[in-house]
Amino acid sequence: MKDGLQDEARDFGNRRDQNGRSVGHLELFFDLVFVYAMSQVTHLMLEDISWQGFGRGVLALLAVWWAWVCYAWLTNTFETARVIQRTLIIVAMAAMLIAAIALPTAFTTGALVFGLALLAVRLINAGMFLDSSSRDEDGLASAIRRLAPGLLVGPALIVAAAFVASPYRELLWVVAAAVDFGSPLIAGISGLRVVPSYFIERHGLVIIIALGETIVELGAGATENLRHPGVLGAVVLGVLISATLWWTYFGLTPGAEERMQRTSGVDRARLARDAYSYLHLPLVAGIVFFALGARVSVEHIDEPLAPLAALALTGGVALFYAAEVAYRWRDHHQLTVDRLLAAAAALLVYPVAVSVPAVLSLTVLTAIGVLRLAWELWRRPQIGAGTAGTVQ
């Protein structure tokens, strides 16, 4: 009897430690590559601000995002304490860096380099999944075996795309993205486990990575015109918009973690897949598009923005707020009306952005973000188990 109680107490302690696990230094080191990859997605679109350029940017972001998602699930599911595991993640980091370097030319001269590097990243990921699951419980091992083939089909199609011309090249990228995002829906994710504190912290960090790209682009856009007072003002406005996006997201993190803690079994895995692996993508995409529009705005503060640059600026902010609405709905089944109104207001700035100097567009977007945040801090609405605006 005493031994049984001791075993139960030990199991409870292990579960508590597992649920309280936080992101380690290895994951932070690994994510540095994705800081660079995000900037490369922005540069890909900056080099060709057209519908084709935007489309290619989205496809590149889908590939980079799913590579990151696969490793987020890997390090969430298994602790990478062994030397060989850490070495393999560093090798994958090197391969991802090569893919990021080739990314701006991934649809032209660098197509094969990007495809092969991405395939190497996924091969390491699939191998580590299979190796780690072979020593674990049967349910998890079965889930990994179901999902593993889908990890490789997408990058294999991107490699194949290097040998065909446009538009067939882009079409194969679309199919690759459909395979990546569709595999967890078709194969199912029952058997996968999720550590709430780790999973939510890891996805919060990727939002920080994306917001960091905004800061980088603001700085790059201002470098050549530092003596212009308007440029400095535009940089400040860009930082304020980024800060309101940051506060919007992280103001509800405690409630999101509690929601995940209260969800168990396959429902927890589905919540993690839907709210984080899927619905965090448009959050990141909105920030990336805003970064592009902000850089163009800082470079041309005295001129109205070209239509597509204006769409990136205003649509990026709108997409972020709309994705926040979708994320919170999936997470808490509550409609966050303030974020929905902010998304609509940001879209309505588009006709202004193509008609007035860019610095005025940044001013209006700043006002929208500040007013929304001020309302939230005043009203303190309850979203799920959390109080909006509470940033830890």
From TrEMBL:
<feature type="transmembrane region" description="Helical">
    <location>
        <begin position="58"/>
        <end position="75"/>
    </location>
</feature>
<feature type="transmembrane region" description="Helical">
    <location>
        <begin position="304"/>
        <end position="323"/>
    </location>
</feature>
<feature type="transmembrane region" description="Helical">
    <location>
        <begin position="229"/>
        <end position="252"/>
    </location>
</feature>
<keyword id="KW-0472">Membrane</keyword>
<feature type="transmembrane region" description="Helical">
    <location>
        <begin position="113"/>
        <end position="131"/>
    </location>
</feature>
<protein>
    <submittedName>
        <fullName>Low temperature requirement protein LtrA</fullName>
    </submittedName>
</protein>
<dbReference type="Pfam" id="PF06772">
    <property type="entry name" value="LtrA"/>
</dbReference>
<feature type="transmembrane region" description="Helical">
    <location>
        <begin position="87"/>
        <end position="107"/>
    </location>
</feature>
<feature type="transmembrane region" description="Helical">
    <location>
        <begin position="335"/>
        <end position="352"/>
    </location>
</feature>
<feature type="transmembrane region" description="Helical">
    <location>
        <begin position="143"/>
        <end position="165"/>
    </location>
</feature>
<dbReference type="InterPro" id="IPR010640">
    <property type="entry name" value="Low_temperature_requirement_A"/>
</dbReference>
<feature type="transmembrane region" description="Helical">
    <location>
        <begin position="171"/>
        <end position="192"/>
    </location>
</feature>
<keyword id="KW-0812">Transmembrane</keyword>
<feature type="transmembrane region" description="Helical">
    <location>
        <begin position="278"/>
        <end position="298"/>
    </location>
</feature>
<keyword id="KW-1133">Transmembrane helix</keyword>
<feature type="transmembrane region" description="Helical">
    <location>
        <begin position="204"/>
        <end position="223"/>
    </location>
</feature>
